[in-house]
Design goal:
The complex is a heterotrimer. By secondary structure, chain A is mainly alpha-helical. In chain A, 65% of the residues lie in helices and 0% in strands. The chains are: A mainly alpha, B mainly alpha, C mainly alpha.
């Protein structure tokens, strides 16, 4: 039976994913839905970062350590850090849609906005 | 669908998905024991091959620079989208939603500390941006830090100074230049027959600020673009809130 | 080793650089200059992609960005595979974008010149998506494609329908992106690699729950993009709010690229994983495809808003393409690519024609258009030819694709797939024919209508502009004529078949990635199946005409024969599900995700 501590970050990522999806499904306010997308984002980041971690590994910056030393994985960090900044602006785009929807119809509740039925 | 039905169905199926996720994660390598070859190879050779001591930025701006080009253009497209969505339409009426009253008298202490904070932020932002290849940092982080400077002005001074800075057409030009120059830096090696985004500039001495060839240059372009992008988004939102429309310059 | 062509990065780099240039000069360029520059850049990309295709036909090669070649078996950089299928999709992307930009010349509103750079970015993303063999690069281009698409949906901000359609689109596709990223995390943890061929090699024939779950996550992410049932709810809403040229790109190519990615997964990354459970995998994918065809077809006929109807027909045909991928043989894949190209042009032609109707008749709902189209002969001709094309009738390329799918289905012992294709073609063509009969001939009585059709859409052109200029007709005509032309030329189909023999073999792709060249095997054609296909195509078209007539002339028929009218009013439970509420859509997404994961983990493990 694997040690739960060894798998905890993955379970946390799974739980965050579940919470994010729950938030969107039960949301009554479009801004709240967009923030739940940000929660989904965090879930993927936690998963990626915990995959790259190495116990006892240094940061992958060789300014003051020799290049042969044990470090954590730099690739996942690289994948993630551009994503964080970019997703922030994509969230801004979604929020702009919400602002526009509010301007057009005076409401931000998904239940009241339904003219695209059928 | 009624809300209660939706939530109940979600708990069933979402719960199944959550349990399957955990079940699958059991077979992953345990946390803290990264074994894969990719990261290790780069950590070992990155310093020698590219004279860049920060392996993360070496990956971002050299080994996988093409991905970063794509990500940068995602940011670019998102900003274009925000500007297009919240643009002024011809014939639309302005509605005065919360006219800004810029007559608050802030105490001198607040303004002095704000100026100090702005000075420190600007210096710190440039430091982070220029040292991306040596220590954690680089274009994206520097862009976000530098973009916070006009927002500090907005908080500590008044809206007019913020608008004066961010409504200038130079901001848009800067953004497009930042994005375009990354693509052009990538296209330049094609002239000498090397593949796109090859690091063709002299690599310099490891540990110098001006080292690792195009990594530093690309980082600077991205810093320019990210700063301008956040300023544009901030300006567009502010105008939307204040006037309900974006004035065309 | 074949030296890769130096033109390889250009289908992505040129539109991106051009978009930056257009955005830089945005405020100072007037509309005409901006439009011209956009068209010029799209045309340049088309030219470059054609040259690249010519070089790909000489021999496959791989292009390493940054000059990072693989070391031993570890791939360090990002690679583009220059082989006819991927480059062919890039050519298709540039062609459709060029036609869309020509169509949108002086369309009322260019979003203060934001529209042209966004279209170019969209083009670059589609090109990069088809060429890349790196799984994270695929994710980046997926995100770029999605973000440009969300942004383009924001062009029409004065619509009577609020921007809810683009919000639903954005939320579901962003969840898709996160699913793909999670799956990339799993794959990276298991193999330490980000290159598709290297991951495939490292996974080997492992099929523990971890691998299967990663497979399901990634495939669900791409199914959301490909609008498979139950992930399809966002597509009609997005089409209802997007401007016409953007709809062409969505239905013509963006949705199908999701299926292309599924093909890459199935044939390169997870090729050996399912070697022992091929039947079970086929069962899962085929059932999904059939459900999509049925629901897509039935909902298509029940729609009265032209663009939503065409969106559902895209879902139906995408289901047919999934059936082809599910079969898994090289012939099936080659047939699916032919079907994809044909469908892209025909659907594009139909969307352009609906744009023409919106322009001339200022309406997009079936009741609003009733009998107003009498006298529009060219538009009517394009519309009816498009219907014939959808039914896979003889002169069109779709029939050749359908022939290939049927012949592959016969080989795999599943001949009922041809009947699914026939159903899909017939019902979608019937919907198009019904609308055509009502609009252009004014036959029958006032059509049934629904809420969405009543809401309608604002016209995209200025009222003063009553004439229809050649640049609005030309893209529609081109889109309808090209499939007829391509059906006649046999050369490119031979190239496609040989290319798919490399595409579908993991060993072939490994060879390409690590040594830079491949040996293409020659695949026989499916010309014997063409006869059967011609017959089926004609039957499908006749059935479509019959069904449309029972709808149009419903008052002249006995109650029991009014099949068309019955289908037209829609099957109530299905209509209720398409509710426009993002929470509902995400719930169905979760249901699909949970069911697929459970099915794969239970059925496909050791």
């Amino acid at each position: 039976m694997p040690n739960v501590l060894h798998l905890l970050p993955y379970f946390v990522a799974a739980w965050l994913f579940f919470c994010g999806l729950y938030g969107i499904v039960s949301s009554k306010h479009l801004v709240h839905s967009v923030m739940c997308l940000a929660i989904l984002q965090s879930s993927t980041y936690i998963l990626l970062l915990s995959i790259g971690y190495r116990v006892g590994g240094a940061a992958p910056v060789f300014a003051d350590i020799a290049p042969g030393k044990r470090t954590v994985d730099p690739v996942v960090q690289a994948l993630m850090l551009t994503d964080v900044v970019v997703e922030a602006v994509v969230v801004a785009l979604l929020l702009a849609m919400v602002v526009k929807a509010h301007e057009r119809s005076g409401t931000v509740s998904p239940d009241e906005l339904r003219t695209l039925r059928g | 669908m009624r809300e209660a039905v939706r939530t109940r169905l979600f708990f069933i199926f979402g719960g199944i998905f959550f349990l399957l996720f955990c079940y699958a994660a059991v077979d992953l390598p345990p946390w803290g024991s990264y074994r894969g070859p990719y990261g290790d190879v780069i950590a070992r050779v990155g310093v020698y091959e590219r004279h860049a001591t920060d392996a993360v930025n070496a990956v971002n701006y050299d080994y996988r620079a093409f991905d970063t080009l794509g990500e940068e253009f995602i940011l670019f497209a998102a900003v274009l989208g925000v500007m297009m969505l919240l643009r002024r339409e011809e014939g639309a009426s302005t509605h005065d939603v919360g006219r800004v009253v810029d007559k608050l008298h802030l105490s001198t202490t607040v303004r002095a500390i704000a100026m100090l904070a702005i000075l420190v932020t600007v210096v710190f932002g440039f430091y982070i941006g220029l040292h991306g290849q040596l220590t954690p940092g680089g274009g994206f982080q520097a862009g976000v830090i530098l973009a916070s400077v006009p927002f500090l002005l907005y908080v500590c001074e008044n809206t007019e100074s913020f608008r004066r800075i961010t409504s200038h057409s130079a901001v848009e030009v800067m953004e497009a230049l930042g994005a375009g120059s990354y693509a052009l830096i990538g296209l330049s090696p094609l002239i000498i027959g090397a593949p796109f985004l090859t690091n063709f500039l002299p690599l310099g001495k490891t540990g110098d600020v001006f080292s690792s060839g195009t990594i530093a240059l690309i980082s600077a372009c991205i810093g320019l673009e990210v700063t301008a992008a956040f300023l544009l988004v901030g300006y567009t939102y502010l105008e939307e809130i204040i006037t309900g429309e974006i004035p065309e310059e | 080793m074949t030296a890769p062509s130096p033109l390889t990065p250009l289908p992505v780099a040129v539109p991106l650089a051009g978009a930056a240039l257009l955005a830089c000069l945005r405020k100072w360029l007037n509309r005409t200059v901006a439009d011209t520059l956009g068209i010029a850049l799209a045309a340049a990309t088309l030219l470059i992609s054609c040259f690249l295709l010519a070089s790909a036909m000489h021999g496959n090669s791989i292009y390493w960005f940054g000059n990072w070649f693989p070391r031993y078996s570890i791939v360090l950089g990002i690679g583009f595979a220059v082989e006819p299928i991927g480059v062919g999709l890039a050519v298709l992307a540039s062609t459709l974008t060029l036609l869309s930009l020509v169509y949108s010349w002086r369309l009322t509103d260019s979003g203060s010149n934001h529209f042209q750079p966004l279209m170019l970015i969209f083009l670059a993303a589609m090109g990069g998506f088809s060429l890349t063999v790196d799984v994270f690069n695929l994710f980046v281009f997926f995100e770029l494609m999605s973000t440009a698409a969300f942004a383009l949906c924001g062009l029409k901000t004065r619509e009577p329908a609020p921007l809810q359609g683009s919000f639903n689109f954005a939320v579901t596709n962003t969840i898709a992106a996160f699913l793909i990223l999670t799956s990339i995390g799993f794959l990276y943890a298991m193999t330490g690699a980000l290159n598709m061929a290297q991951i495939g090699l490292a996974l080997g024939s492992r099929h523990d729950p971890c691998v299967l779950f990663a497979f399901t996550l990634m495939i669900c992410g791409f199914f959301i993009k490909a609008a498979m049932v139950p992930f399809h709810f966002w597509l009609p809403d997005a089409h209802a709010v997007a401007p016409t040229p953007v709809c062409v790109l969505f239905s013509g190519l963006m949705v199908q690229l999701g299926l292309f990615a599924v093909a890459r997964l199935r044939f390169i990354i997870f090729a050996q994983t399912f070697a022992t459970h091929e039947e079970a995998l086929q069962l899962i994918l085929l059932s999904m495809g059939v459900v999509t065809v049925l629901i897509g077809g039935v909902m298509c006929y029940a729609e009265h808003h032209l663009k939503r109807m065409l969106a559902f027909s895209t879902i139906c045909h995408a289901g047919i393409m999934l059936l082809a991928i599910a079969l898994g043989s090289p012939v099936a894949l080659a047939a699916m690519m032919v079907y994809l190209v044909a469908h892209a042009f025909i659907k594009g032609g139909l969307f352009f024609t609906s744009g023409l109707l919106l322009h001339r008749l200022r309406a997009i709902g079936e009741r609003a258009l009733f009998a107003k189209g009498k006298g529009l002969s060219w538009t009517a001709a394009l519309w009816f030819l498009g219907a014939a094309g959808l039914a896979a009738a003889p002169p069109f390329l779709l029939m050749t694709g359908e022939a290939g799918i049927s012949s592959a289905a016969e080989e795999m012992g599943r001949p009922w797939i041809s009947w699914a294709c026939l159903f899909g073609g017939a019902i979608t063509a019937a919907a198009v024919l019904r609308i055509g009969m009502h609009t252009f001939f004014g036959w029958g009585v006032e059509p049934i209508t629904d809420e969405a059709a009543e809401v309608g859409e604002l016209p995209e052109t200025a009222r003063e502009d009553r004439r229809t200029f050649w640049y609005r007709f030309a893209p529609a005509t081109a889109c309808v004529l090209i499939p007829i032309l391509l059906a006649g030329l046999q050369v490119w189909q031979g190239v496609l078949r040989d290319a798919s023999s490399v595409f579908t073999s993991q060993a072939g792709m490994l060879h390409l990635v690590y040594t830079g060249s491949t040996v293409a095997k020659h695949l026989p054609g499916w010309s014997e199946a063409l006869r059967g296909s011609t017959v089926r195509g004609i039957i499908a078209f006749l059935l479509a005409v019959l069904l449309a007539c029972t709808s149009v002339f419903r008052l002249n028929l006995k109650r029991s024969l009014r099949l068309g009218a019955f289908l037209e009013s829609g099957i109530r439970p299905l209509r209720v599900l398409q509710s426009g509420h993002p929470g509902d859509y995400v719930l169905w997404l979760t249901i699909g995700l949970a069911s697929l994961s459970a099915a794969s983990v239970l059925l496909l493990r050791r």
